[in-house]
Amino acid sequence: MKDDGEIMDKVVILFSGGKESRLLLERALQLGMAPYCVLIDYEQRHKQELAYASMSLNSKSIPWQEIKLHKLDVHSALTDGKGEYSGVSEWYVPQRNLMFISIAASIAESMGINRIWYGASYTDREDLFPDCYQEWVYNINAFFKVSGINITVEAPLLGYTEDMVWKELDTIGVDRNEIYSGYGEL
Fold first, then answer.
1. Which of 46, 146, 149, 167 has the maximum number of C-beta atoms within 10 A of its C-beta?
2. Structural domain includes residue 120
3. Are 122 and 107 in contact (CB under 8 A)?
4. Residue 62's closest CA among 5, 107, 13?
């Protein structure tokens, strides 16, 4: 509850432990929201990401759960080192955000939460991640509406470059040593 007795806005955040998801968490807390975080183990090569994520959430007493998506047998520089798809980043995992949003929507719906945040940024668009475009977010929301699902997917950082994300994190005092991302660090 907020101090004035109103119920806090709730949000499910797809949380990786990287800079974008950490900024989303900090924003939710600044706005007085009640975040519930979902971590996804999709057999990514950079397992440190999940350790940093859980450590960060536990230190702030944020409720969270980890979902395991194993034996997908998808290729990417993030999973098996084989980024093989034409016209997209080598780090692209086929339909990763669609899977993640679907899982988050199931959790959100069962908890009565009608908002999901994920950390797509403008840099992701520049780097050719097709599931990090405004049009993609718009169409996911259109699908939910047609399906009668009362959930909105939001990517609050779509206008942010990587430098802008770091600058805001630095401004609010987040220690960079508390953040981990496997992109380019494998």
1. 46
2. yes
3. no
4. 13
pLDDT for 1 beyond 50: no
- Is 145 within a domain? yes
**Phi and psi at residue 8, in whole multiples of 5°?**
-70, 145
Length of the chain: 186
- Whether 182 contacts 78, CB under 8 Å: yes
Interacting residues of 77 by C-beta distance below 8 A, sequence separation 6+: 83, 90, 91, 186
Specify which residues 12 forms β-bridges with: 36, 116
Total count of domains within the chain: 1
**Residue 101 domain boundaries:** 10-178
Cβ(62)–Cβ(25) below 8 Å: yes
Sorted by sequence, the CB contacts under 8 Å of residue 150 that are 6+ apart come out as 114, 144
Specify the pTM: 0.89
Task: Evaluate whether residue 1 is within a structural domain.
Answer: no
pLDDT in tens, 36-48: 999 998 877 677 8
CATH number at residue 130: 3.40.50.620
Residue 23 lies in a domain: yes
